[in-house]
Specification:
7% helix; binds 6-O-phosphono-beta-D-fructofuranose; binds fe (ii) ion; gluconeogenesis; RmlC_Cupin_sf; EC 5.3.1.9; glycolysis
Length: 201
Amino acid sequence: MCAAARPAEPAALTVEALAGALAGPTERYEKHLADLRGLYRDAEAFEIAVAADDGTPVYWVDSSTPDTGRGALTIGLSVLRPGRVGDEWAMTRGHLHAQAEFAELYFGISGSGVMLLDSVDGESRALPIAPGVAVHVPGGWVHRSVNVGDELLVTLFAYATEAGQDYGIIERAGGMSQLVVADDTGGWTTRPNPDHGGYRA
Ligand SMILES: O=P(O)(O)OC[C@H]1O[C@](O)(CO)[C@@H](O)[C@@H]1O
Ligand SMILES: [Fe+2]
């Protein structure tokens, strides 16, 4: 908003956790399995899953951006279906903010997840996210959500709109440094990604 412009319209948004929707003046984008080629390491398992795909999106995002420019906030609901491809749990593409110093808040609404984080200088973290858990993603961390349960993973997020997203950084690195995979007990664990070659600008 510039000084002379009228302020943007405030919005009240309703989290519909069971439906996986944020009701109100929002925009939605969806990612289908076929959009996610190259994300999972097991290419054979991926193609089998694509062949059996019923067209339901893997994840979708309802977001509210009433204003753009300096100071504007994007808030939204990220909804990720459960599932696995090979031994990897369902995940979002992940990104570093295009303006990498910008942080983000995620708040767990329902389901069981992991926020997987890589710093550009080689640190890695996997933080469980569940209803009531707030995950603070500081600037400088590549981040992705992973659904490690058997229901929708629903998280509320907020970040400065001008932060933007750089999706290419993970692709150029050969994926994030860790994979979130099934363990022997039906839970999750992390394993180093042998394809990961480090992050370059
Ligand atoms: O943008 P991606 O990496 O596809 O994943 C979607 C998630 O990330 C966000 O872009 C927020 O940073 C949300 O839209 C959602 O939590
Ligand atoms: Fe983000």
